[in-house]
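F.,

This is the one I mentioned.
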């Protein structure tokens, strides 16, 4: 970034120095030169990386980078691992800090980080091949006892001019392919932003809709919902996937249990046709699930709560349990708290229902 020295109201220089370190330049000439030097640098890095996906032959036109399925089609992905990662990432840090909400730089001294670069090749006037960086993903590869590996997507960024054109989704698909072809244990995502979770869920649903090992289980649960009318039952009922389906999905598609459960809920929505007829039942199922997630399975036990918490560790095995000090709250206090809880629950259910409807519509459109 070009920093023009001068006396402003705020001392930007020290703030920018923290972010850009030695990449901060103060002279305009120097700044302009970085355009070609950084491009050359990216070119040299990817020439030593491993190409993972070639663009399709006819997916590109001058004003659109999406093919007929809405996927980006004019890009290549290169995997950079080992020594070059630190050097490459130190140049990406300012983008991470500026463009990914609440992000922290990864530890470049840890050799288990890999970077997947999305680039587009362009021919310049001298017919030299230029490289445009479109985005990247930082993926952590760690050992799983006894002899397996897991992949965790730590950061993903599509540069703003390229966002919403299918590149993020295409990069996720490449990562899915890596996970499946290397037969790792699973591919997880660290604290996904809503925008990323939306793209990820859409992709996973498309994969799950054609994954035959779960189709019978799905039809059986859909039929049960249709006949049992869950909204009229006093006892909450289980409409989750069978354990064998969770395991099949993880083994073949590398989707972990938490993400699969999110998708399963939407698969039920898609299966309940026509959904308007079963909306009350469906909402009751979503409400029961959210209630269990927030206030824990022991919601009837006064003072004891288990809740999921955001974590940088394995989300499936991380939770917090707390015990309230005032287990014997008085009637009016507990009534007030209860109605607040009910209102918060209703809001959460409304939000989730909106999200489910949106994703289901997008997925139905893309599979038509
Ligand atoms: C683990 C983590 O790294 S969490 C942080 C994730 N990264 C960020 O938030 C950085 C800023 N955002 C980005 O880099 C990108 O927008 C990403 C990586 C989230 C998604 O990549 P994109 O190339 O924009 O996604 P893609 O074009 O494949 O899909 C776009 C979808 O995301 C949704 N979306 C959300 N935010 C945006 C946005 N800012 N621009 C465009 N689309 C967005 C769109 O609604 C669209 O969904 P639709 O196809 O159903 O309409």
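My design for it:
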């Amino acid at each position: 970034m070009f920093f023009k020295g001068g006396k402003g109201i705020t001392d930007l220089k020290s703030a920018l120095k923290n972010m850009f370190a030695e990449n901060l330049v103060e002279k305009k000439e120097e700044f302009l030169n970085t355009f070609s030097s950084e491009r050359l640098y990216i070119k040299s890095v990817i020439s030593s990386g491993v190409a993972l996906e070639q663009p399709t032959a006819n997916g590109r036109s001058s004003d659109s980078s999406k093919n007929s399925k809405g996927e980006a089609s004019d890009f290549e992905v290169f995997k950079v691992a080992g020594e070059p990662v630190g050097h490459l990432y130190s140049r990406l840090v300012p983008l991470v800090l500026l463009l990914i909400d609440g992000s922290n730089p990864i530890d470049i001294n840890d050799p288990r980080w890999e970077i997947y670069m999305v680039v587009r090749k362009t021919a310049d006037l001298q017919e030299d091949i230029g490289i445009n960086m479109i985005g990247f993903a930082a993926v952590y590869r760690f050992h799983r006892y006894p002899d397996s590996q897991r992949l965790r997507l730590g950061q993903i960024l599509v540069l703003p001019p390229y966002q919403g054109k299918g590149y993020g989704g295409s990069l996720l698909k490449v990562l899915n392919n890596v996970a499946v072809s290397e037969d790792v244990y699973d591919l997880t995502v660290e604290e996904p932003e809503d925008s990323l979770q939306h793209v990820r869920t859409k992709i996973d649903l498309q994969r799950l809709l054609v994954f035959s090992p779960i189709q019978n289980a799905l039809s059986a649960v859909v039929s049960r919902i249709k006949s049992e009318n869950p909204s009229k039952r006093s006892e909450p009922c289980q409409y989750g996937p069978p354990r064998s389906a969770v395991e099949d999905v993880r083994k073949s598609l590398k989707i972990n249990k938490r993400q699969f459960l999110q998708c399963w809920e939407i698969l039920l929505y898609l299966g309940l046709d026509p959904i308007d007829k079963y909306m009350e039942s469906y909402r009751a199922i979503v409400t029961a699930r959210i209630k269990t997630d927030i206030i824990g399975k022991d919601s009837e036990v006064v003072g004891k709560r288990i809740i999921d918490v955001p974590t940088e560790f394995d989300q499936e095995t991380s939770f917090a349990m707390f015990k309230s000090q005032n287990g014997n709250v008085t009637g009016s206090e507990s009534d007030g708290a209860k109605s607040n809880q009910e209102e918060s629950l209703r809001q959460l259910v409304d939000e989730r229902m909106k999200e489910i409807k949106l994703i289901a519509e997008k997925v139905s459109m893309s599979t038509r």
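Residues 331-367 form the longest helix (37 residues).

Talk soon.
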